[in-house]
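Re-run requested by the PI after the first attempt was lost when the workstation crashed. Everything re-entered from the original request form. Ligand of interest: beta-D-galactopyranuronic acid.
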Amino acid sequence: MKMRSQYAWIKWCMEAVLAAMAVLPTAANPAVPSAPEPKDVPELMTTFKGEKVTTREQWEKVRAPELLAEFTREEYGRRPVERPKTLSFAAAEPDAVMMDGKAIRKRVRVSYGGKYGTNEFTFTAFIPRQEQPAPAFILICNRSAAENIDPTREKKSDFWPAEQIVARGYAAIAFWNGDIAPDCNRGLSEGVFAVFGDTSRPDRPKDAWGVLSAWAWGASRVMDWIETEPLLDAKHVAVVGHSRGGKTALVAGVYDKRFAMACSNDSGCSGAKLNHIDLPRSEHLADIVTTFPYWFCRNYVRHVNAEKSWRVDQHEFVALIAPRLVCIASATGDAWAGPEGEYASGALASPAWELYGKKGLVSNGFPPPETPLQEGCISYHLRTGKHNLTPYDWKVYMDFADRHGWRK
Ligand code: GTR
């Protein structure tokens, strides 16, 4: 009897240890971050004057324009130019058949001029060789161009798996953000800024554009070229970016309605992450404007440590992409970007899609890793692993495009 109870005790202890191991994070079992509830979130469907928005017309005429004006004046800044009259395209190199005959590579030089001079940048497009015009994914590359978007394909990177993208019937297009404006304080006086006006001086207009908006402007110029290229299907173009590039992809999607999809990978603070949620390990405005003041317009500093009393939040920025497609992605090991806040923005943006008779994010709550939520027009997925853009993320984005009939 005594022996039996001793065994029962040992068995109980072992079960308790095993149960704890299943819950505690280990390398094999990464923690699913718990999901705190957003609090006192600004109401998407109530105008600044306090009127309820119930129709698509009210959304398009009143609510969306006032939100756009707020984000432009307070966060990303006003652009002095959209498509310059002087914009032109030329082949930077002759077209080449690559990827074992599966793709045509085009290298395109984009030239433009403004009041203060001229400039140019070159991007790469791998277009699948097929009968019908190809839908496309444009990557705003915020990492080393030589390592990640090598046009010769001698260097291949998981960050931009161009072969995988082409094999799925999509054109893989990429440009380097630094070619539009350098990713540093002096960025505000170089690249596109040097052509359309110097914004580097300390007294630059408080609502003048920052570097994120300039990078997004670059994506729109690539889109200008796509519209001229018969091998491409300009109605089905996604803009993709990771981290600062992910913030930029949202900006591109909001300001340019020609993008049928915006994919925001691990974009975090000032991207998809909601501010009205307590995620102490995530980046806040105080951090981001200290390290990267030039990403934004000068007005943004006034919301530092006051983001919870600001009348808008990032879910309303995401909502400005409705009724088009949005992908939001997070990674389990990326607390700095705040996965639960990125998810919450998608969930809270959804009523904008409902005004169009569509669904936004269809979900029963914060999902476990590797369980993409793709039933509506917002895709959300949490990937196991670090802050990164991986072939798995790309697969999820392409699955979403497939699901919406992008490949005829
Ligand atoms: C971090 C920054 C983030 C994110 C990231 C990145 O240092 O705090 O907002 O953009 O860089 O771009 O990798």
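Saved to the shared folder this time. The longest helix spans residues 2-23.
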